[in-house]
Design a protein that fits this description.
- This protein is mainly alpha-helical.
- The protein folds into two domains: 104 residues, no CATH class; 125 residues, Helix Hairpins (Orthogonal Bundle).
- Helix content is 78%, strand content 5%.
- The protein is built from six helices and four strands.
- It has a four-stranded mixed sheet with strand order 2-1-4-3.
- Strand 1 and strand 2 form a beta hairpin.
- The longest helix has 83 residues.
- The chain starts with 7 loop residues before the first helix and ends with a helix.
């Protein structure tokens, strides 16, 4: 859809209005500051801690299962020892007796090994439970911190989100009345300069936020509003102070209604 034909002055006013709207959005987002990122980081940390707890509990189940298996092995070994001891009573020669004795010794070693493993497993359980307790403590603290930060963010969002959305819609509307070439230049300058100020008024003979004096002849050209002039030092689009004052009053009235 083609942009409607407008004068240079209308373009300058529209650009400065757009700057005022976008600067207001910047102010709102600055109030939120790092809060959204902090909340996101805390949510990631909480998710990580929950995953860690889940793994630790799975590890405990595996260890418990290992202990059960070793206990079953001990029961089976004791049953075999009892069985072999009974069989020794009915042996016909020393070879059979010694063979059964070796089996009894082997099962005794199996029991010792199983008991050693059970002891190691129990030590692991103690260690895992300590880590679980520490993790739960850290998780509770992180959850509390997250709840606090979310509360802060929600409170700020409740105050500003409606205004921000309305401003973003206005920004889109104002862009429709400005040719693409200028919008692209505005966005490029805005992304490259401090505070996102792409359109600034002349203040005390210099462009807003700058100490470089603008020659009187250039100041007169800017005040004539016949062409779009940029600051040779910062690249910002320049408007005269009177235009800026008029548009600021107009936009402040608009902001008050949002």
């Amino acid at each position: 859809m083609a942009k409607k034909e407008v004068t240079v002055e209308q373009k300058l006013r529209a650009l400065y209005d757009l700057q005022l709207i976008d600067s207001r959005v910047d102010e709102i987002r600055n109030v939120r500051g790092e809060l959204p990122l902090e909340v996101e980081d805390l949510e990631d940390e909480v998710a990580g801690l929950n995953k860690r707890l889940e793994k630790l509990n799975t590890d405990l189940e595996t260890i418990d299962e290992g202990i059960k298996n070793k206990k079953n092995l001990i029961e089976e070994a004791n049953a075999l020892i009892k069985k072999y001891a009974e069989q020794q009573k009915n042996v016909r020669n020393n070879r059979e007796y010694n063979s059964l004795n070796k089996e009894i010794e082997f099962q005794g070693l199996e029991i010792q090994l199983a008991e050693k493993h059970i002891k190691e497993h129990k030590a692991q359980i103690v260690q895992k439970n300590e880590i679980i307790a520490q993790t739960k403590e850290k998780l509770a603290e992180r959850n509390e911190h997250l709840s606090h930060k979310k509360g802060e963010l929600d409170a700020i969002l409740a105050e500003t989100e409606k205004e921000e959305q309305a401003l973003l819609a206005k920004s889109e509307d104002y862009q429709k009345d400005i040719e693409d070439r200028l919008i692209n230049a505005y966005k490029r300058i805005r992304s490259n300069v401090k505070n996102g100020l792409a359109v600034v008024p002349i203040e005390r003979g210099a462009s807003g936020g700058s100490f470089f004096t603008i020659p009187p002849q250039i100041q007169m050209e800017i005040a004539s509003r016949k062409k779009i002039i940029t600051d040779e030092h910062s690249g910002r689009i320049l408007v005269d102070q009177e235009l800026a004052k008029e548009e600021k009053e107009k936009m402040e009235a608009l902001f008050a209604k949002l």
